[in-house]
């Protein structure tokens, strides 16, 4: 089931460095980010056959609605050191983006349109 994971971070007087290296239970094959989302817009609305995904709001905040086997849960992403790990079969919808939000995604597979299962909630 979808769950939060902590991203290793190292702080000193120069700021904080956070790294995904060694933090994920999969090898990263694709990285992308979502930004400049208009107020009220929603992203996602699908699940996958194969892709495991980490979502990480590196700036600002958003909410992720996750549905799986009749269960529904909402997650708020608002810390750059806490990511949301999603299994392939979990339907997800990203919404309620704050102004200036940047949502980073790390995926276990390269982009393949046939991996997407687009369906209503």
Rg result: 14 Å
Count of helix runs: 0
How many strands appear in the DSSP assignment? 12
Residue runs with pLDDT of under 50 for 5 or more positions = none
CATH class: Mainly Beta
Compressed to H and E, one letter per element, the order equals EEEEEEEEEEEE
Helix/strand structural class: mainly beta
Mean model confidence by pLDDT: 96
Strand order of the largest sheet: 1-9-6-11-4
CATH topology: Jelly Rolls
- Terminal Cα span: 17 Å
Largest sheet report: 5 strands, antiparallel
Helical fraction equals: under 10%
- Domains, number: 1
Principal-axes geometry comes out as: globular
CATH architecture: Sandwich
Describe what you observe in this structure:
The chain is an all-beta fold. It has a single domain, classed as Sandwich (Jelly Rolls), CATH 2.60.120. It is 0% helix and 53% strand. The strands form three sheets. A five-stranded antiparallel beta sheet has the order 1-9-6-11-4, with no helix packed on it. The relative contact order is 0.33.
What is the fold's blueprint, element by element?
Blueprint (H helix, E strand, L loop, with lengths): L2 E4 L2 E4 L2 E4 L11 E6 L7 E6 L4 E7 L2 E7 L2 E7 L4 E5 L4 E5 L6 E6 L8 E3 L3
Antiparallel strand pairs: 1-9, 2-3, 4-11, 5-10, 5-12, 6-9, 6-11, 7-8, 7-10
Compact overview of the structure:
With 121 residues, the chain is an all-beta fold. It has strands spanning 3-6, 9-12, 15-18, 30-35, 43-48, 53-59, 62-68, 71-77, 82-86, 91-95, 102-107, 116-118.
């Amino acid at each position: 089931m979808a769950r939060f994971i902590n991203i290793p971070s190292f702080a000193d007087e120069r700021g904080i460095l956070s790294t995904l290296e060694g933090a994920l239970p999969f090898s990263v094959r694709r990285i992308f980010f979502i930004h400049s989302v208009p107020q009220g817009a929603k992203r996602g609305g699908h699940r996958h056959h194969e892709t495991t995904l980490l979502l990480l709001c590196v700036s600002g905040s958003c909410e992720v609605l996750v549905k799986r086997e009749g269960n529904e849960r909402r997650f708020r992403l608002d810390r750059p050191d806490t990511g949301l790990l999603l299994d392939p079969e979990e339907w997800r919808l990203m919404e309620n983006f704050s102004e200036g939000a940047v949502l980073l995604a790390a995926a276990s597979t390269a982009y393949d349109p046939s991996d997407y299962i687009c369906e209503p909630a």
